[in-house]
């Protein structure tokens, strides 16, 4: 089974995975949300959520090349 990496520092997300008994590792992605917001202050909430999730996952690929990053 591939390792699952949670690309988030959110306590809520970790608790959700724990409740579901999904084995995972949490990693703090080197992605600056504030800087991204400043670069595009008119981004819609939906676009922001999708963009940030993808950027966080991509920022961890080098550290976890064989893992499933969420």
Folded structure, characterized:
The protein is mainly alpha-helical and 70 residues long. Strands 2-1-3 form a 3-stranded parallel β-sheet, with no helix packed on it. The mean pLDDT is 91. The protein is 43% helix and 10% strand. It has helices spanning 11-19, 33-39, 45-58; strands at 4-6, 25-26, 68-69. Helix 1 (11-19) links the parallel strand 1 and strand 2.
Features of this protein?
single chain; 70 residues; mainly alpha; three-stranded parallel sheet; 3 helices
SSE blueprint and pairings:
Elements: E1 4-6, H1 11-19, E2 25-26, H2 33-39, H3 45-58, E3 68-69
Parallel strand pairs: 1-2, 1-3
Instruction: Tell me the strand percentage band.
Output: 5-15%
Class of secondary structure makeup: mainly alpha
Average pLDDT value? 91
- Taken in chain order, the helices and strands follow as EHEHHE
What order do the strands of the largest sheet run in, or round the barrel if closed?
2-1-3
Radius of gyration: 13 Å
- Overall shape: it is globular
Number of helices: 3
Task: Please give the share of residues in helix.
Answer: 40-55%
**Biggest sheet, open or closed, and with what strands and sense?**
3 strands, parallel
Distance between the termini: 15 Å
Strand element count: 3
Runs with pLDDT <50, length 5+?
none
Give a concise summary.
The chain has 70 residues and is mainly α. The protein is built from three helices and three strands; from the N terminus they run βαβααβ. Helix 1 links the parallel strand 1 and strand 2.
């Amino acid at each position: 089974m591939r390792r699952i990496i949670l690309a988030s520092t959110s306590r809520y997300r970790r608790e959700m995975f724990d409740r579901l008994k999904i084995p995972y590792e949490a990693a703090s992605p080197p992605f600056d949300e504030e800087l991204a917001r400043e670069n595009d202050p008119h981004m819609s909430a939906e676009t922001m959520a999708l963009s940030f999730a993808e950027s966080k996952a991509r920022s961890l690929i080098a550290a976890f090349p064989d893992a499933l990053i969420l």
